[in-house]
Design brief:
Strand content: 5-15%
Oligomer: single chain
Strand order of the largest sheet: 2-1-3-4-5
CATH architecture: 3-Layer(aba) Sandwich
CATH superfamily: SGNH hydrolase
Number of strands: 5
Number of helices: 12
Order of helices and strands: EHHEHEHEHHEHHHHHH
Largest sheet: 5 strands, parallel
Distance between the termini: 52 Å
Number of domains: 1
Radius of gyration: 21 Å
Structural class: alpha/beta
Shape: elongated
Length: 322
C-alpha cells in the first residue's frame, strides 16, 4: 500500500522533533570525538529528535543576533512549527578583554542576548541558556606562547572573573525570558579539578576550550536538566517502532499503528517544514522524494558531510577565538 492513500501517514524524512544547539566554538566543537557534549545530546535524543549543531567558532552575540532571524524565523505553524528544544551558549568571546575583536560590552551583551533568547523562546517549546566556562590563566598564557612565540603579549585576554560577570548576565536573561539555565561556569569553578576541564595538563589545551573531560562535564550538566523540562528520554515519542516491536508478519500494519500513536506528538516538536506542507504534517514520502526543496536539502546535507570529512582530515590548529 502506498503512503498517499493510507489512513495513517507514515512519518517523512523531516517528521522528527528538532533540537538546535546555537553558540560559538564551545558548541561547534561539541561534536568532536565520542566525548563531545553535543554528541551526548544527539545520543540522548536518538530516534526521538534530530540534533542540529549551529556552533560558529569565534562568534559573539552581536554577530549571532544578525544570524538569528534567518536561523529562527517566527514559526508560521503555531505550536506545530516550534523546535522541541534550543540551547543557547554565547559569552566566552563576548567576555574577551576590551580591544579584542570579539569583545562585546557587558550591557550590550545582556541586551542582545535577551533579544536572541526571546526569539528562541518564541520558536521552541523549551530553551536552555548556558554560561561561559572559567578560564585557566597559566594554560591560556602557555597557549599564547605556543601560538605567537615572541609576539605573545603575556597578558590574559580572557579571565574567569570577566567570564563570570557575563555568566551572571546570561542568568538574568534566562530568568526574564522564562528559559532554563545551566550555570556551566559556576559548576566548573566548584569542581576541585576544574582546570583540566578547560585543557590544563594537555598538549593542546588553551585554558578555555573543553578537554574530553570538560565535554563530558558539560554533557552531564545539560542532560541532567532535561527531565525537569519534561524531556525525560523514556517519555519522549519516537519515530517508527523499535525493531523488536515490529510485527514481522505484518510490518506495515505495525508501522502505521505506531505512527498513529506517536506521530502527532513527534510532529509537535519539529521546527522543520518543507515549503507547501500543511500545518502539523510533513509531506508524504512520495512527494518528499520528488520535491525540489527536498532535493536541495539532501544535496546540502551531502555537501556538508563531505566538507566535514575534509576538515576532519586537516591537522587541528589552536585558535584565539572560541
Amino acid at each position: 500500500m502506498g503512503d498517499e492513500g493510507a489512513s495513517t501517514a507514515l512519518p517523512s524524512l523531516l517528521s522528527r522533533s528538532s533540537v538546535v544547539l546555537f553558540g560559538d566554538s564551545l558548541t561547534q566543537r561539541g561534536f568532536d570525538g565520542g566525548a563531545g557534549w553535543a554528541t551526548a545530546v544527539a545520543r540522548y535524543f536518538g530516534r526521538r529528535a534530530d540534533v542540529y549543531n549551529r556552533g560558529y567558532g569565534g562568534y559573539n552575540v552581536r554577530w549571532a543576533s544578525v544570524m538569528a532571524p534567518s536561523l529562527f524565523p517566527a514559526p508560521a505553524l503555531g505550536a506545530a512549527g516550534r523546535h522541541l528544544l534550543i540551547v543557547v551558549w554565547f559569552g566566552a568571546n563576548d567576555a574577551a578583554a576590551p580591544g579584542e575583536r570579539a569583545h562585546v560590552p557587558l550591557e550590550e551583551y545582556e541586551r542582545s542576548l535577551d533579544a536572541l533568547v526571546g526569539r528562541a523562546v518564541a520558536c521552541a517549546g523549551r530553551v536552555i541558556v548556558l554560561t561561559p566556562p572559567p578560564v585557566h590563566g597559566p594554560t591560556r598564557l602557555a597557549f599564547q606562547r605556543r601560538r605567537y612565540g615572541a609576539a605573545a603579549t603575556g597578558v590574559l585576554e580572557r579571565t574567569t572573573a570577566r567570564a563570570a560577570s557575563y555568566g551572571a548576565a546570561a542568568l538574568r536573561v534566562a530568568r526574564r525570558r522564562g528559559a532554563a539555565a545551566v550555570d556551566v561556569g559556576a559548576a566548573m569553578a566548584a569542581s576541585e579539578d576544574w582546570p583540566r576541564l578547560v585543557g590544563a595538563g594537555t598538549a593542546d589545551g588553551d585554558g578555555l576550550h573543553l578537554s574530553d573531560a570538560g565535554q563530558a562535564f558539560v554533557a552531564d550538566q545539560v542532560l541532567s536538566a532535561l527531565p525537569g523540562l519534561g524531556l525525560a528520554k523514556d517519555d519522549l515519542p519516537y519515530e517508527y517502532p523499535w525493531g523488536f516491536e515490529v510485527d514481522a508478519a505484518a510490518p506495515e500494519a505495525s508501522l502505521r499503528a505506531h505512527a498513529g500513536k506517536h506521530g502527532p506528538r513527534l510532529l509537535a516538536g519539529s521546527g522543520l517544514r518543507l515549503p507547501g506542507g500543511p500545518p502539523g504534517r510533513a509531506p508524504p514520502l512520495s512527494r518528499l522524494a520528488t520535491s525540489p526543496a527536498a532535493t536541495a536539502f539532501v544535496a546540502g546535507l551531502a555537501c556538508g558531510a563531505y566538507l566535514l570529512h575534509l576538515l576532519a582530515r586537516r591537522p587541528r590548529r589552536a585558535r584565539r577565538g572560541v
